[in-house]
TrEMBL record:
Signal peptide (residue range): none
Region Disordered, annotated ranges: 1-22
TM region(s), chain numbering: 60-82, 94-115, 121-142, 211-230, 242-260, 281-298, 310-330, 337-355, 361-378
UniProt-recorded name of the protein: Low temperature requirement protein LtrA
PANTHER family in alphabetical order: BLL5714 PROTEIN (PTHR36840)
């Protein structure tokens, strides 16, 4: 990082940060990176909302999971790299801005992916982001002798997989899903293979902050989705949506509370660091999907949707259950014991039953409030002795 009063160079050797570096905070470039990526998140959630409301639930789910993978994986890889190697020179900034441009290309292709099944624009944007990452890793291989083997593996692995994504565009349509799964697994395998010579020096506290900030951004997108749906209703002269809006707001507030209830730090050992990092795909995707589901529930209430209230309830209930179970695995089960550990999966199960009743959104809001209440009441009693640093054996 550039010190106070110093001049930022055009290029400096890419040296690693220390894993125990004090006061390691997110930079303005990282925050700008997040802000631009949320454009793609908004596009994905908005298209999921409209597809679900139109009754294309299966197509909506498949398209959403595929699109969100491109968004999340692009964001995640930059985040972990920047934690280890952010030099803040001009070359680094320019390369990162190229990655941001790729994210905007991804966002521009989201609607086409949902409506036509055409992932070409998303693929081009994704490849731009990832090949710019190869530039980062090549610089790291040159500047960090201790982790040169890992950096080289990253650069080679990412390049090979990107060639696969480009070749996928020429495959027949019937191979689209299978090839996506195969290439997605290949992308996921690159860090697991690359880190084997020795973990790159990412900063656990910095990674935790970065993930928390992106969680806040996605929560904000969920709030915006509900707000826009309510606004459309009010503009149409429908003024009986306030209680539904309040229930939706309570759900989002409860998600925030449950994620940030206790300090959580990214584990600093393999392989659980990968589990923690990869598991947040479900955290981010479920939060954005909850916003889309709440928008669909508003459409049902307004009589504009081609789905039943039960389906709309499941559009909220399923991602709520996914969120709770993922947080239970990544945070709660590692740090706590007793009643709170039991409460999370129980409420997740009840969230899957809530849509069978007449007012699922209100029931889900009540269930989440009850879970927050349990976590508050049992806070001191159920915290384990090594809550913030213990990893599974």
């Amino acid at each position: 990082m550039t010190g106070s009063g110093s001049v930022r160079p055009f290029y400096r050797p890419m040296r690693p940060h220390r894993r125990n570096e004090p006061h390691r905070a997110s930079t303005p470039l990282e925050l700008f990176f997040d802000l631009c990526f949320v454009v793609a998140v908004a596009q994905a959630a908005g298209n999921l909302h409209h597809d679900v409301s139109d009754g294309h639930v299966g197509h909506a789910l498949t398209s959403y999971l595929m699109v969100f993978f491109a968004i999340w994986w692009s964001w995640m890889n930059f985040t972990w790299f920047a934690s280890a190697y952010d030099t803040d020179d001009d070359v680094y900034r320019i390369t990162t801005l190229v990655q941001i441009a790729g994210a905007l290309i991804i966002a521009a292709g989201v609607t086409r992916a949902f409506t036509d099944g055409d992932f070409s624009v998303i693929t081009y944007g994704y490849v731009v982001v990832r090949l710019a990452a190869v530039v980062h890793w090549t610089r790291a291989a040159v500047g960090d002798l201790a982790h040169r083997a890992a950096a080289r593996r990253y650069a080679i692995g990412v390049t090979v997989v990107q060639l696969g994504w480009l070749l996928r565009l020429s495959l027949p349509d019937e191979w689209g899903l299978a090839s996506f799964v195969l290439l997605g697994l290949a992308d996921l395998a690159v860090p697991a293979v690359a880190e084997r010579p020795g973990m790159t020096p990412w900063h656990p506290a910095h990674i935790t902050e970065r993930y928390g900030l992106f969680t806040l951004i996605v929560l904000g997108e969920a709030v915006a989705a509900v707000s826009l749906a309510i606004q459309d209703g009010l503009n149409a002269g429908e003024h009986d949506l306030w209680s539904l809006a309040a229930a939706g707001a309570v759900i989002v507030f409860a998600l925030w509370w449950l994620y940030f209830d206790r300090p959580n730090q990214a584990p600093d050992r393999m392989p659980y660091s990968l589990v923690w990092g990869y598991g947040h795909y479900l955290v981010f995707a479920s939060i954005a999907a909850i916003g889309a589901g709440l928008g669909a529930a508003v459409d049902v209430d307004r009589g504009l949707a081609h789905i039943s209230p039960t389906v709309a309830g499941y559009a909220v209930g399923i991602p709520v259950a996914v969120f709770l179970l993922t947080i239970w695995v990544l945070h709660v089960r590692r740090q706590q014991h007793g009643g709170v550990v039991v409460a999370f999966p129980v409420v997740a199960l009840l969230a899957l039953l809530a849509p069978l009743g007449p007012t699922p959104v209100y029931v889900l809001a009540a269930l989440l409030v009850a879970l927050v209440t349990v976590t508050v009441l049992l806070r001191g009693r159920d915290v384990g002795p090594s809550a913030t640093v213990a990893d599974p054996a």
